[in-house]
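Chain A, query sequence.
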Amino acid sequence: MRKVVMVLVEMLVIAAIGAGGAFAINSMRGKNSLHVTRNYFPQAAAPSKPATTDTGKTADPVMTPTPSIVPSPAQDQPKPAFAPVKPKDEPRPETPKAAKKHVQSEFKEIDFDGVRQALNDPRAQTKEYLIIDARDTEHFEEGHLPGAVQCDHYRIDDYIDRVRELAMAASMVIVYCNGGECEDSLFVCRTLTEYGVPAGMIQLFPGGWEEWEASGEPGETGPESADE
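Chain A, predicted structure.
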């Protein structure tokens, strides 16, 4: 029994000496020394408890809103069962062509109203207001101004003597042809001046027979009357 006690005492002494040496060495290590009271194996943090309101009820957790997806207008609209038919382009009405302007000349021009007024004057019946048609026989007989005297430009020699005599006795001479680009009336006017008819007495009707006929005013057909 005594031996057992002696063994236990020796073990305690050795343990005390070892512990003292360990503390001495640990104090010499400084910041790397071991602390008896330090917890070197901490446990994982426990999950936090949900917050409670003043009434003691658990507050709803804050949820991050998920952005909503707005469909595009093309997705909302249903697709047509068939493609719309594009209307055909209607043909545009043709722009009316402007009337061809009569060639310019050195002679005074008279318009449609002036010719109509002259023909309604009694002096037209006595040839004091002389109306001369410069077209050929075919066109003259198809239609001409009332009381007109023919003077075919292309057969001027057959007409000029008689027409000159009538023009010299008149106070106003009106010369016309088809109108527009027709120049027959202009040539007759120049021929009359060459035969001595004063240019101041001559007036050129640019609209000619075409304008007169289109107006609906009455005309004459066939050859000249016997009294003409």
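Confidence is low (pLDDT under 50) at residues 93-100. Residues 134 and 184 are 6 Å apart (CA to CA).
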